[in-house]
Request: fold
Amino acid sequence: MKDKVRRGGGGGGGGGNQAKSDVTNLANGKDATGVKQDEDTLFSVKIQGAGVEPFELQVHRFWRVQDAVMTMLSRDEVCPRSNLSLALAGTTLDPLAELHSLKGLKPGAIIRLVEEPYTARSARLHLARVLELLRASGPQDALREGRSPSVLETLMHTQTPESSLPNGKSLKRSSSNTKTESTNQDAAPPEYLLPGSSERPLMALLPHSSQPEAPSYLRDLSLSCWNPPPGHRKLQGDFMYITVATMEGRCYDITSCPKGFFVNRSTEDAFDPRPTQSSPVCHCITDLLCHISPAFKQTFTTLKNRPQLPPVEVLPTPYHTLSWLGPPCASRIHKNTFSRLGIDEQASTRVPDWNEELQTARDLPQGCLEERLHRDRALLQVNSAFVRAVMQGAETVVDGFVEPVNGNPEDPAFLWGGLFMSQGVASPVFGGERGCRAAQRLELQGVQAYSNLEGMEQLHTLPTAIVDYRGVRLSAQGLAPGLEGSDQDQGTTPGSRGLLYGVNAGPQESPQRRELLELLARSAKSLCLQRHVVLSPKGHQVPLFTSVESQGVLGADGRLYILDVFRTFPADANFSPEVEAESQTVTAEESNKSCEGEEEKKVCVKEGWPENYHADTGLPKSYRHSLCRLRPELVRDFIQHKHCQFSQRVKESLEDNGGFEECATACDSRAANAVRAACEDVGSLSNIIFEMRFNPNIFSPGVSFPPGESESTKLQQRLLREAAAFIITHQISAFVEYCLQSSEAPMDGASLKQELHQRGINLRYLGHVIKAIRQSEHKECLRHIMRLLIGEIFIRSTRRVFSSFLQGVDVPSLSAAVSHFLCCLLVAHFIPTPVGEETKKKSRRRGRGAGASESTPWSTLTGAELWNLVCQDADETYNISDCLGSGPNHLVEHYGLQKLSLLREFCLKTGVQLRLRDYFLDNQNKAPIGPDDILNFFPLVKHIHMPTVDALKAYHAAENSIQKGLMDQAHEHLKEAAYLFGHVCDNLHPEACYCHSLLARVAYLQGKTAEARSVKLKAVVISERVLGFDHPNTIQQYVLLGVYVYAGGETALAQKCLLRARLLILTVHGEDHPYVATVDSCLGLVLTGDQTGQFLKNALRLNNSFFGPTALCTALSQRLLAQWMCSKGDYRNAMTHAKEAFTAFTSLFGDDHPQTQCSKEFLCTITKQAVQVERSLRQAGADCAEPTVECLTPTTDTILEQMVLVTGIRRLTVTDMFQEFKKKHLERKAAAAKELGIYLTNNPIASENVNSAQETGCGKETEDGGSPAVGNNNSMSQQKQPVEEVSVESAAVVSANGLVVQPGKQNQHEEKTEPDIGDSETVKEESEVRVAAEETKTNVQNGVKSSTANGEMKSEATCGEMKSDQKNDKINGSVLKSKGTWADVVSKALIANGTEDKDTAVNGVTDNVTASGTAEV
Reply:
């Protein structure tokens, strides 16, 4: 690169203050499409004038003048001035002019600020800007507004972690009145954080902020009683009159005019608009206030000079992240001094056209990198503003402030703020209200799918979102631009009315229709949709690329739109009514005669269902609605699975016909016939290449196909049945296996949902996942997943009951009704107090008469009735019976669910915000949740996610570099990605959080501890504000931050971070989770008090319980516990645990592995020490002297290295077992060569050393960590679980075929396979074996691989020691990872539909996809 990123370890911030001249398109190692900029893109100019101190401003040559103005206005030297322009050499610059086109503008040039005259609107905007500055956000403002706060800054400035409540009470006090308050020593964790404690104090979750409250600048600032100006004063330029009451007790009337602001002579009794003699005319109102009030000048100067928080802590997040806890005091503490100025209530004069704004942003140029970044940022800003408007609109509509625009009470529609909002029609065809909600959700998914298509900018979709508020779901869209054509054309053809595509479009021909059909054909290919023919209502045959409901229209703005895309994805045959009818017929036939004989079995298989599928699973069956569709992630994985089958069929066919070499060299049709047979066998649409597409109208009620489509329809029905069965037979089992192996298993409902969705498993399969766990022989090790599944079913069923419950509640009773509902839900045998009695008690206390004593319908709800409703919904939706029991105590006793965790999940899924206080949910005599505890209802919005394409490419390239062991290159890529994320979204996005987390890891492994610390600090803040202060990803970020700050010598801060993580995970899930063992292991290493042993013992107990005694994490726990016992002088028990660790390491790695040898040496050391201690005790007893026991204490470097291993920052790699695989493949290679008559040398090829020098450990696959949305292969945002990369996985080895193999337990994502390997592949494997073996020969101290003396890591760390942060490219567990096979040679070069993209094969499978369909990243 000519110009590297000019940023520190933290990556980039928003606003584009740094330059980057060249960005490499890091996908597949190719050059970027962006245009390289010159090295002098960034230069400095000097700004002066307008009463500000001169300063230098860095600008880009590609900026416009208005970009420089916006950057300048954000500077402390200029803020809060506004309405300024720039002048160069006495000439005012055009705001739209580009800087590089200005003559005389060069580095060091002097640019003057020019104060422009105000207009009435700009004067109000200036006042709003000043008020935004004066309204410095207080510590509780985020909670009051329902936004997730950042607690890290408070944590870093407190002396004792979680030591005190905001009200001054000690958190170390037990909740029981019989317990006495204990005084803990410094750095000792409070009692509620010790293992085994059942206390869950919510007050500790959000400690009191260290930031001071905002000072008082003025007593009052409001509109004057003489406002608005009379007509004759308007003609003289008066905009408004403002009254100011200063802290000195004086009142002034201020006039706003084009020149600025001045003090007039008006008083409360007399109107005199003339300026006072001593009053200047100030362009900025703060200058005038400083002139008239010395107190304001002092506080305002303090405000401007106060330390600035990092941008990630103060900039607004693009989307609202709900905080389910509000401030402890619901009432306001400080009055709003500026509320009567009227600026906030100033109605906008222009209703935004959201569709036009979004399409304008999409149409922005993308020729170079800077243009793409500008487009991505514009799209994010427009979509963010649209989502905020949807939230405000939902509150306004549901609260009853907007009248419907139609007369249909069944489906009221509303227009507000440029939005069209509707509840949708509860059509019986789709399944009533449940079907209506499903249609709204699927419409959003369809819009997201079409929006993500690259190169399809000419095909437009409307801005869309769905919002849930107070039990009502609204669908919100930007107003459509109207159809091309006039009202006089309504009686003519559909084409003249703008309808170009659809069942009702009719035959027509126009350039716009041809363009639309071309766009739809390309989008269908990307979405794996089949072109098919259906019958219209009039009996005509209509070719379609989409579902029958979709319509393509030409808008009045000249753009092509695709509408009604809620059936974009294929139907789920497991829950399709047509399939249910067929299965009932088949079941009736089977009752008389079972499928016997090979022919009948083939017929059963041909239909698509596995043998005995219905008897084993109960599927297919009907569902609560008829809009059950497959997820795009499932379609992707199923296609990969079919590609694996296709490759295997081709390989078997070629081997049966003489082998690949013979078929390839022979000039006959054997190879082509093998491909054709494999295509027919797997259901490919083509008989010459592998091509898999789906018909979205199969199993859709009311859709008819012409007779000529019967064969295609049968094939599509078969494929959809196979895809539906694939969920049960492969995806669910892969999910269960992943949870069984990983300590990063889901912790709450959100992470569970993301893990299931990224494997294409819909939440309607929760009951089948429970069934799979119950049938597993390791179900006890999966109890934490069972706990989450039961809790998710319970909360989701409760939410549906709660939505219906709220419809019968009037607004004044909302708080009381919600608290009553929660008490009935969570308190066993709760007896509600009659409303009349409660009203009488309150009235007596207030000295008033008793109010109405009539009971409302919601107040008569009892716990038993509510529980029956929830259980009924759960049984009908998820097909579970008796799982929820008879009350909440059943969930606690049988599954270990916490009522507090259920309360949190309920609030997050309904938008309810509770007051921050401790709740005791087992009190049956008194309602634990009262009306005063319900602070607010917040809308929950599901919206489109705008991708950041260039940043994601850089991020994925970094992951590829990590897998190759190129750490320096990965570090550069990650810094570029961080810069690009900062430029687009100010780093306030989940993808930016994952990027910074991986950047911190790479920096740490390169020995850059300070950089890792600073980057991780930013990642924690981003996670807290964007994902949630108690999100599972935030928990893991805190743990990793604890490691990095400990590496920098900040032991106290490391303890705070780890204790914070333990507090959060105890609240979110409870103590019985595998990740608690990771946290406790780290706490046992950094704590120095008496509780250290408790944490280490608890970690060992959990690891042994979840993973077994021979797992790597269990062995590490045994080793840590033995080490701690040695430090206490307890060598007898230390020997026991050291022996267990040695046994486990021997079982995992073998006798010759360095880790096993170190464990053996450690055991020998403590054995010798134990013998010496025993001798000294005997000698002391004989001499009647006090015995002296020498303790073995680990060094700081050893502790740090152990934390790195425990948290998964670096992993142990099994290298010695490579020799076995190497030997097998060398023997296979020799046999193949002998068969072909080729002489095979045993000497290694010289290129082996070259490969090892360039790429260390390149054969080691990095296990995917997962991310928020796997629906699109190019996006991290729509799928993935924002769970961080900190698991402690079993030691892995690299087999000769590139597989990650786990001894003892098979890896959850891959299967062992023994594919045939060619000569070049064997050479590569030998290189990988040698490189990995050489890199693991490091110095070992106390049984743990240690780093260099100063704790720095090698920059060429093996990729086995790294784990990717990527969350979106997880591969299905049943798909075999293998090298190239015979099918690759046959089908690799074939491209479907004549596409010219060399990187994209059929169905989007790239060239680096193996025969099994698995992408080799």
The first helix runs from residue 65 to 73. The CA atoms of residues 964 and 1255 lie 5 Å apart. The first strand starts at residue 42 and ends at 49.
